[in-house]
Recover the amino acids of this structure.
């Protein structure tokens, strides 16, 4: 069974920079996994942020960026705002299925 | 505006059946990939299933053999038939379009979700 691993929780100060990562139990994450990132706030549907590693959706603020770092997919938030406090999920493609990471709870404090 | 709306959630007993609907507007479901994703209360997102534009379907191991995707093209509606449900199937179920283009894959829009509760 494939497992996608994210940090369970991360804390960042307002205005700071933070990187969330997404690892696959099958090995290094590459662009072939089409990494997608979503933001979810309580009671809301997931909001797409980044797709195919580093492409921003039209409404995604420029402070969100995606990349591959050290064999993992990564989501970097620069100049963090209080409204960025949320759960963040990565999603990886395995050919005949997608697998979500367990999510990272981002606290802005 | 492209929009997906789920319906059909509710209370179902363990071992029972339920059919969820995902009605699309602004897009043709026969020309798109549509996924089902669920979220148990207080838990993370879980990918459930996808139907491709040509009708090919794939399922997560957790629902394989119990859940089935089908389409009513005349109503531009997708269904998730849930059979032999278990307590662990309790979740909000979302449908979401997956776009495959220019060597990229992305999700959106998402519906607002419909809650399924499995309990006796």
């Amino acid at each position: 069974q494939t497992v996608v691993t994210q940090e369970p929780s991360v804390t960042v100060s307002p205005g700071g920079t933070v990187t969330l990562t997404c690892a696959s139990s099958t090995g290094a994450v590459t662009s072939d996994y089409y990494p997608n990132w979503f933001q979810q706030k309580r009671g809301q549907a997931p909001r797409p942020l980044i797709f195919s590693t580093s492409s921003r959706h039209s409404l995604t603020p420029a402070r969100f960026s995606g990349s591959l770092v050290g064999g993992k997919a990564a989501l970097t938030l620069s100049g963090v705002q209080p409204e960025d406090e949320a759960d963040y999920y990565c999603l990886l493609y395995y050919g005949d299925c997608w697998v979500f990471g367990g999510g990272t709870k981002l606290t802005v404090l | 505006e492209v929009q997906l709306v789920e319906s059909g959630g509710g209370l179902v007993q363990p071992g029972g059946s339920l059919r969820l609907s995902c009605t699309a507007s602004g897009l043709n479901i026969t020309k798109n990939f549509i996924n089902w994703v669920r979220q148990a209360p207080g838990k993370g997102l879980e990918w459930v299933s996808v139907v491709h534009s040509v009708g090919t379907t794939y399922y997560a191991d957790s629902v394989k053999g119990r859940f089935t995707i089908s389409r009513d093209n005349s109503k531009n509606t997708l269904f998730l038939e849930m059979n032999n449900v278990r307590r662990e199937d309790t979740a909000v179920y979302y449908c979401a379009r997956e776009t495959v283009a220019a060597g990229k894959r992305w999700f959106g829009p998402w519906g607002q979700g419909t809650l399924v509760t499995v309990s006796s």
Summary: Residues 1 and 66 of chain A are 26 Å apart (CA to CA). Chain A touches chain B through 24 residues (CB under 8 Å).
